[in-house]
Amino acid sequence: AVTVTGTPQLTLANGGAGQVVNYVSGTGTTALTFTYTVQAGDTSADLDYSSTTALALNAGTIKDAAGNAGTLTLVAPGAANSLGANKAIVIDAVAPVLASAAVNGNQLVLTYTETNTLDAVNIASNGAFTVVSGGAANAVTGVVVNAAAKTVTLTLTTAVTGGQIVTVAYTDPTGGNDANAVQDAVGNDAGTLAATAVTNNTVNIPTDTTAPVFAVATVNGNQLVLLYTEANTLDAANIAPNGAFAVVSGGVVNGVTAVAVNAAAKTVTLTLTTAVTNGQVVTVAYADPTAGNDANAVQDAVGNDAATLGATAVINNTPVVPVVPVVPVVPVVPVVPVVPVVPVVPVVPNTTPKDPPPPVPFAFTQQPDTKGPQQPRDTDNESSQPTRPIVTDALNNLTNSRPNQGDRDSRPDFFSTNTNEDSNRWMQLIVHDASPTSYIARNSLLIGSAPLQAGTPLTDFEIGSGRPIAFTLPVATFLVNDPDVEVTVTVGLASGGDIPSWMKFDPASGTLSGTPPPGVSGALKLMFIARDSKGNSATSTISIELSSEQENRTTERNTRDQRADLGLQRLMESLFTKGKPSLPQPTLADLERMSSPGRSGLDAQFAQHGRADKDPQSLALLAQLSANIDGADAEMIQ
Asked: How far apart are CA 167 and CA 197, in angstroms?
């Protein structure tokens, strides 16, 4: 303990030269107390004495119990056992001072100089501030304090324009520290501020009162683009509705399904219901909702509406859809020499049972027929219907292919004749193989009276499920009056929708192929649709009867037909090395003997196809050929 007499003093580090404080109590103890009254302007983040010699006796004494004078030297400020180290005392008696004021638009910012931070909670009211801009009072509608940045931001009723003179004033509520004022974190109020000039940083934006002006319109497919001339940008948010636009293509109204605006590119893109085709005449019109500036319209970024646009021509940039031209193939008919007539030798049928050859895929190929379509074959009552002819009119066959004479196992699909109208009246047998390559891919469309029309009707047919289908559109299915027109063909269900997944259609060759799954039955009605590059169209339908029982009947019939056809093929091979004698008129017995089991006689077949009185020499030739074949060939033709 120490004994104190007089009034020792301690100098504090609280701003400037420091403040001297007097001893008040503590004699007879180890702790001495000094009294410090904070004065305006005092400040310290952590109060401490000014130095190691800050303690002075001031004519007093400080002695221990033995009467020894106390050491007056203190530890360094901030060191252990110093005032700053033992106590965390913050002194702030300095009020915030305005440093600058600036305005931009309706935001006026006051920046203060403050040792610590501002009070962002107990802020001054709107009415404590007075702002004048351009000579008129501009009321404050909001006050926000940023404590760390030491700023007070005022929101003004009216935005200041560039070049205006602006002043701001602030009134402190009272002379003391108030509950709500511009103040620091410890409550020191900023002083009242007289009208002070404000730096005006507002940049004037040129006023835009010019509406966008239509420049040009183009279309490609279903995308129609309107380009506008505009000093700034278009409004891509508040766009015009679909119904504000009217588009006509090819003389027909074409509805708008969507509108999109590219603000920077200054374009309005319309999506059309139907794609425009090359060469079509297209117009577009736009109706501005009202005479004023509307919420949703073709407008610029500041809301100037584009004017109503009357029906205006559109540049059609839609390209022509390329169509691969079909090069017609001119059939070449080989000359077959006529063989000498020899006596008819009866053919003794071979009664030895043989295994039938394997079935071949059913191939249905229709060809143009000037006599009208043939009747479909009723396989459920085969005996009452005409059989498939061995020899048919040349108009039913447009191919010029011949069988490979070395291929004894080829399976021709049908035979046809080609009659030369010269004096010799010779006849030629032509084999048409059931190849998936169709003549329709090698021949142009036939010429008709209309731009595009349906031609020869397609003939319905029946096929067993599980058997392959190879159907090729005939050349005369559709007719055109322009040989250079480009025509495309598609196929779907007549009732609407796509063809079954097991069926494929090649539009380049006109071939429909596929194998119906086993067990599938019923009628499958298809519609072929032809469209030309001028917008014309025509349709043709066909019904395919799918029957699970048909497969067995078809196999049996094909086996019989193939045997007969192979026999005729072998006959044809032998004809190419013989001469050309005159041909006698055959007898009825000759014609009947040339028929295979289950097949009508040739006289009945020729009569069925309108040739009974046209080719007596052809009949004679076939009768004579039948007499010259060997046993194996006789069995095959039967």
From this structure: 4
